[in-house]
Amino acid sequence: MNPPRPDEFKPPPECPVFEPSWEEFADPYAFINKIRPIAEKTGICKVRPPPGWQPPFACDVEKLHFVPRIQRLNELEAQTRVKLNFFDQIAKFWDLQGCTLKIPHVERKLLDLYKLNKLVAEEGGFDIVCQERRWTKIAVQMGFAPGKAIGSHLRTHYEKILYPYNLFQSGANLLVSSCVQRPVESKKAEESEDVKEQAPAMTPPDSNVRRHKRLKTEVSVDPRTTESNTETGGIMQNRLIGLSAVLRCYSLIRNVPHFYICDSCHLQSAACSAVVQVDLVVCLVCGSGGDEDRLLLCDGCDDSYHTFCLIPPLHDVPKGDWRCPKCLAQLCNKPHDAFGFEQAFRDYSLRAFGQMADAFKSDYFNMPVHMVPTELVEKEFWRLVGAIDEDVTVEYGADIASKEFGSGFPIPNRRFKVTPADEKYLKCGWNLNNLAMMNRSVLTHVTADICGMTLPWLYVGMCFSSFCWHIEDHWSYSINYLHWGEPKTWYGAPGFAAEQLEEVMKKLAPELFDSQPDLLHQLVTIMNPNTLMAHGVPIYRTNQCAGEFVVTFPRAYHSGFNQGFNFAEAVNFCTVDWMPLGRQCVDHYRSLNRYNVFSHDEMVCNMASKAESLDVVLASAVHKDMVLMIREEQELRDRGVVLCKEAKYDNLQDDERQCVKCKTTCYLSALTCPCSPGVLVCLHHLDQLWKTVFNQRQLPRQGYDLFPMMHAAKERAQLYDDWAVRVTETLEAKLEKKRGLPVFRALLAESESKLFPENDLLRRLRLFTQDAEKCSTVAQQLLNGKRQTSGKSRSQLTVEELRSFVRQLYNLSCSLPQAPQLKELLNRIEDFQQHSEKVLSDEVPSVAEIQGLLEVSFDFDMDLPELPRLRVRLEQARWLEAVQQESGQPKTLTLDSMRRLIDQGVGLGPHPSVEKAMARLQELLTVSEHWEDKAVSLLKARPPHSIETLSGAAEKASGIPAHLPNCLLLKDAMRKAREWLQEAEELQASGSVPMVDSLSDTVLRGQAIQVHLEPLDQLETLLSEVQDWKEEAASAFLMCSYVSYGKVTDCVFLNQLATLEELRLREMEAFFNLRATNESKLLPTTDCMDLKVCVCQKPPMGAMLQCELCRDAFHRACLPDLTEKAQPWLCTRCRRSAKPPLAKIISLLASLERLRVRLPEGDALSYVLERTVDWQQRTQHVLCDVLKFEERAGTPPTLTRWAPGNTEAPNNTQVRNIARLDTFT
Q1: Rounded to an integer, what distance in angstroms lies between the CA atom of residue 1179 and that of residue 550?
Q2: pLDDT tier for residue 25 given thresholds of 50, 70 and 90
Q3: Which of 890, 1013, 1011 shows the shortest CA–CA distance to 954?
Q4: Residue range 985-1010: average pLDDT?
Q5: Average pLDDT of 1130-1153?
Q6: In angstroms, rounded to a whole number, what is the distance separating the alpha carbons of residues 36 and 870?
């Protein structure tokens, strides 16, 4: 997972989310009043209706057409807009100078000119930064790494781009206009070339080079005017000297080449020529018409200036239009138009807008709209609003009047037909068409229908479309319902932080508020919540999903944006607690010269005129508001109003009775003047209408008599006020004046019977009564000694808490009968604590006594600090008993038992007896583990240890009083080793020849014993020699098997003599079958392509060879080692069937006799050798008879060998000895 970027948006904490029950949901005003103490701390909250509350969407989709607003995201954010405005101004400045602004790159990043300009200004300006060499510091503040000479680059860019602009802003460049008196000539162009480096780093547009204009004429001069001209020339010379001094001073400060006034600037004396050349187009700075190629003509006023006479001087003649300093000041200092949203050119239907919105989001994120995470959209939104170089534009269908197109909620007598199941939504309080005008709402007394306040507004959003930071009109509540679509993300700040938020935004973007003081009321500016939070403003957020409400509280700033295409509806409402805030808001609007949506005074008077029908709490609030209103009105009238007359405002629209100064809607009174018909001012701004004539003021006022209405409201509220006085006295009673809990219950019952609405006093009474009842219940439980034995355990009071609780009971405003009894319980608990301390201080406590104290503690439903100590002491005693019991039985005391006891002992509290037992156990465990590990190492040692070494270790381990498995294994290994050695000695002492199986079993048992056994090596060597003999015998008798056609199997020694003839017969039968099969392959009737011959198993082709024995055919190409010989040719498989020579058999039997081990294979060889020798003897007798016969017949004698590889036949004695090798004593 990639780490977040330092500038990545971090979501603020979530606002409260409420899920009312159906009972709570029945009355929206009661529920909002209930959650207000919690929700107003965050400014906004979210309300999820109960499951199943789903009103039908009643808006006429086909009729709904709207023109959305265009929102450029990076123009919404305050700080980003300030930067954009700065770039626009500086670009306009250089454009009017005939140059195009190009923002330079530093370290491969665009240079932030706004930040550079701001940092230099904070450090004191360009000159101070240069003098004190602070450019490196500024480079570090801008985020560049130190030590790369970035400061010098920043200075160069500032000097070329920003310094001329700052001179213009300060008015220093207008100095040239104030110094012009008479035309003078300047020096030659080559003298001004030193100022070329002061030109801005701009690229002029590709237009024709601006041409200068100059006209010369001849003028006749009267000689009589020479004297006066001379005087004038002297004055001019003095002025030019002053100008030169000013320019030289400027050049010293700027550290640029000096500006010089040439000698031709000084006027000649009276002896000058009568006819002179006069330049009619001259530089207004130096007064000279020379250096024509450096003379600029303003495209605004046609004034002329040398390029080197300007402050700062220009590098070259600009291309394109150019404005002089005076025209530049006039054009750049024009007031900016107030920022606002443009209207789109297209009229959308709801369906067309949805298609456009979904296509935009899908294309932007390159994924389906429903798969884009809300967190990704949120981070991308705040990245875009802060990005200067990314211009993303969206559209927002905001403030669509529901009166014209219909509400999303069903309304009676509309085109939308409601099903019987949905008729409940027509009169539901959460239907926004009903909420604002319910009886509990103060806005019901506003006579006019106000779109957006008393009539809902509709909002059709798309991805990134936003609503900026704002407060609702008149600081009222607002409620927003999202009918359908993708979520809407909200941010809110509590009402108490409103002024703090305004101050932070003014501090961070003062340029915007200088031109628009009421900027935050225009709903066109946002600021990153992370920025506000960094300056201490509490911000909270939430995602409003379809079917959810979001409620904003009075003076709570809120903003947000849409995650995608959605449809929402919003309306305002006001409760009784809003009344004081509403009057404060009117005063706030007056200070900002902001229009009122409605007249607060008119609303209050309307309520007071119907005082008999008002709710008692509302009547009380109206009475208090009227007292303030009448007092303020009287004070303002006493400031000098002398003439009054009544007037009727009922027939006037609000905009016809607004103060021309503060835009407040006048209702109680207003000032007019005959000389300014139709102009009204409020009493706060009477000086705006007349300055000096005070006795001609006229004061129109309404015909209402305020005092009777105020008294009517007071009488209506008297019942509630009397109850409120009694509640206040009861809550503030002290000592013996305290009332019992029934009095509080009676006051609550009275408020319910007389339908007093929910307010702070009633909530305070209810909360105090609930607390008192809880205290009474807890006190009674403590007195009864009841303990909770089932379900979830509850926390118990500590002794200190009980003392505090007793003090709390005596400090309550009501008196509880349980207080004295609880005091007595506290005394009993203190006695128990003293006894427990005495028992715990004993060196050897009694288990019975501890258990007795624990049984007594069950009578107290308290958290006593002595109880854990008593339980710990009891566990210590039980543990010591377990240790003593385990130590008394060493055969069952295992390592696990010792570890378990030690683990149990570690969890016990510290005590001397426990520590001693722990030390003994730990020592025994350490010794036992040591010998266990040593036994394992001895048993696993390679090579194994001798029996003497292991015997000594086993004797030492036997003295440990514990059960050690590895030591027991060591003892068992010693026993087995002794038994094996005894068996080996008996085998050697007997002198008999053992069978190989018996020998192998003895070796295997000896190898399993983990003790070094000296005879074992000899037996292993003997067994290895036996194995080598068997392998040699097997290789000698390896022969071909013809049992399976085409396959060769290893030769097998006959384990039993009776199977030899059977095997021979089977082999011969298989051989003859193979020979017949191979011969049948080569019959003429067989298809040659189906044959598989040779080792390659391919059809016969070319020259073929046939084995004389198996009659199989082979390709000559497959026989690379073939040699041409006359004898019959045998294949490789048949050559393997050659029988071993007799000498080899005799050698094998001789080596077996030396091993002195009896093998079944040796018995088989003896049998074969006997038969072979017997056959040789019989053959020799036959041959001898033949020789005798041939000798008698005169045949020459023939030398005949008795066996291959032997030069002489064995005598009969040797054969008999070899034949008897199978007999062992």
Answers
A1: 123
A2: very high
A3: 1011
A4: 76
A5: 78
A6: 49
Tokens, residue 337: 């138009």
Beta pairing class for 797-798 and 862-863: parallel
pLDDT for the residue numbered 135? 87
pLDDT at residue 701, rounded to an integer: 46
Contacts of 777 (CB under 8 A, 6+ apart): none
* Per-residue model confidence (pLDDT) at position 696: 37
* 436, 454 contact by CB (below 8 A): yes
Would you say the pTM of this structure is higher than 0.85?
A: no
Strands (E), 98-146: 105-106, 109-110
Query: Which of 599, 575, 554, 584 minimizes the C-alpha distance to 448?
Result: 599
Q: Which two tokens stand for residue 306?
A: 């040398």
pLDDT over 90 (residue 431): yes
Q: Name residue, tokens 């009071």.
A: 797
For residue 515, the model assigns a pLDDT of 65
Listed in sequence order, the DSSP H helices in 614-740 are 616-637, 706-731
Number of H helices, E strands in the chain: 40, 31
Query: Which residues are registered as beta bridge partners of 1022?
Result: none
Q: Is the pLDDT of residue 213 over 80?
A: no
Between vectors from CA 320 to CA 319 and to CA 321, what angle results, nearest 5°? 125
What is the structure's pLDDT at 891? 79
Q: Which of 645, 639, 637 is nearest to 700 (CA)?
A: 645
Element (H, E) at 279: strand 275-279
Is 260 in contact with 205 (CB distance < 8 Å)?
no
Among candidate residues 1048, 1044, 1065, 1073, the one with its CA nearest the CA of residue 1134:
1048
378 membership: H or E segment, kind and range: helix 374-385
- The string of DSSP codes covering 8-35 is S--PPPBPPEE---HHHHT-HHHHHHHH
Q: Of 257, 183, 268, which Cα lies nearest the Cα of 233?
A: 268
Alpha helices in 841-940 (DSSP H): 847-857, 866-887, 895-906, 912-939
CB 126 within 8 A of CB 163: yes
Please list the residues that pair with 814 across neighbouring strands: 739
Please, is 505 exposed, middle or buried when counting C-beta atoms within 10 Å of its C-beta (0-12, 13-18, 19+)?
buried
Tokens of 895: 């390592």
pLDDT at residue 1221 is higher than 80: no
Q: Is 611 helix (H, G, I), strand (E, B) or coil?
A: helix
In percent, the amount of the chain with pLDDT more than 90 equals 14
pLDDT at position 556 is 94
Banded model confidence at residue 554, pLDDT cuts 50, 70, 90: very high
Continuous H helices in 991-1084: 996-1008, 1014-1036, 1060-1081
Least confident of 299-308, 636-645, 692-701, 1007-1016: 692-701
How far is Cα 609 from Cα 1074, in angstroms, rounded to an integer? 131
> Residue 195 — pLDDT band, cuts 50, 70, 90?
very low
**CA dist list (Å): 128 to 15, 198, 270, 484, 596:** 49, 19, 49, 60, 49
In whole angstroms, what separates CA 581 from the centre of its chain? 39
Residues 360, 559: Cα–Cα separation, whole Å: 22
CA angle 1020, 1025, 1029 (to 5 degrees): 145
Residue 583: C-alpha distances to residues 596, 610, 760, 1054, 1122 (Å): 11, 20, 20, 122, 124
Q: How confident is the model at residue 98 (pLDDT cuts 50, 70, 90)?
A: low
Nearest to 457 by CA among 399, 396, 397: 399
- Residue 86, exposed/middle/buried by CB under 10 A (0-12, 13-18, 19+)? middle
Supply the DSSP string of 43-93, one letter for each residue. Answer: SEEEEPPPTT------S-TTT-EE-PEEEEHHHHBHHHHHHHHHHHHHHHH
